[in-house]
Amino acid sequence: MSYGSSITDARRQLGVYAGRILKGAQPADLPVQQATKVELLVNLRTAKALGLDVPPSLLARADEVIE
């Protein structure tokens, strides 16, 4: 299982920052931003290999389930 910031969202924000720098902004002047979207990923294949049972309620809340 993994619970953390969205990789897609982070890459999008990286593009925005790169665009600002290419337009002449100083990196030190850019604000630090905190992730606003987090995702829960569950890898059932690995859980089964480890002999773990993942509750259906957790699977229902997951953003992505790898089977």
Low-confidence stretches: none
Identify the overall geometry: rod-shaped
Strand order in the largest sheet: 1-2-3
- The value of Rg in angstroms is 18 Å
Number of strands: 3
- Oligomeric state of the chains present here: single chain
Average pLDDT works out at 93
Query: Treating each run of at least 4 consecutive H or I residues as one helix, how many helices?
Result: 3
Structure description:
There is one protein chain. The protein is an alpha+beta fold. It has helices at 7-22, 44-49, 56-61; strands at 2-5, 38-43, 64-66. The longest helix is centred in the first third of the chain and has 16 residues, at 7-22. The mean pLDDT is 93.
Key attributes of the depicted protein:
single chain; 67 residues; alpha+beta; three-stranded mixed beta sheet; 3 helices; rod-shaped
Short structural summary:
The chain has 67 residues and is of the alpha+beta class. The chain contains three helices and three strands, in the order βαβααβ.
Question: Can you lay out the helices and strands and say which pair or pack?
Answer:
Elements: E1 2-5, H1 7-22, E2 38-43, H2 44-49, H3 56-61, E3 64-66
